[in-house]
Amino acid sequence: MAGAFSKSVDVAVKPSEQDEEVKHMIMDEIMNFLRQNTPPGAEVLMMADVPSIPFYQKFGFQYTYPKSISLSKTI
After folding, report:
1. So which domain of life are we looking at (predicted)?
2. Which of 2, 57, 59, 75 has the least C-beta neighbours within 10 A?
3. Per the confidence metrics, is the pTM higher than 0.85?
4. What would the pLDDT profile of 38-59 be if each residue is shown by its tens digit?
5. What are the domain boundaries of the chain?
6. CB 11 within 8 A of CB 26
């Protein structure tokens, strides 16, 4: 489906609960939801802090550059 997309931003976890098992459990749930609820061909955008990029790459997320790049502005 052209034009369908999902975006995930700022998944927050209580500091005392932040371990690899919890992070994987949350991402497994998000990925299962997306597989069941998004149309084939939908683009899923993941906004991540730089240190987290390798974690999301384990789930198949790739850099969008050079076909696109994100821009931000704080007002």
Report:
1. Bacteria
2. 75
3. no
4. 888 888 888 888 888 899 999 9
5. 5-57
6. yes
